[in-house]
Design goal:
By secondary structure, the protein is mainly α. The protein contains 7 helices and no strands.
Length: 128
């Protein structure tokens, strides 16, 4: 692998480790946020592997996946998961969404997010 994608892979791995640490401390809002960040960065690794252009400086997972050609390789289940993660980047940042989001982020829901994030992260890495 080249240096461009290595950077994004390392950042994705770091963000996933952070999501796990946030789960251990019951910081559920940041579990969700870091799961989004994990997938965003592994998609940017994929982008960097297959494009000379740097990844777009955006946070939309579906748009990033589409623009780099990954979208067409994702299963329906993976696409649904990306749709679930998509708003967590914004909702975790703004107080008007924070309370509503916190109510939905139980231990069980966060466990599911972590499992699906890790599965998608590993699958995308296998494509590199």
């Amino acid at each position: 692998m080249g240096k461009k994608e290595d950077y994004w892979i390392e950042m994705s791995d770091y963000d996933f480790e952070t999501a796990l640490a946030m789960f251990e401390t019951r910081r559920h809002l940041y579990v969700a946020f870091m799961c989004h960040q994990t997938i965003e960065k592994i998609i940017k690794a994929y982008w960097s592997k297959f494009s000379e252009e740097p990844p777009l400086k955006i946070h939309s997972l579906s748009r990033l996946a589409e623009k780099c050609g990954l979208y067409k390789h994702l299963s329906e289940e993976q696409l649904e998961f990306i749709d679930e993660l998509e708003p967590l980047n914004i909702e975790a940042r703004y107080p008007s969404y924070k309370e509503r989001l916190l109510k939905s982020l139980s231990d069980e829901h966060c466990t599911k997010l972590l499992k699906q994030t890790n599965e998608l992260r590993i699958w995308i890495k296998s494509k590199l």
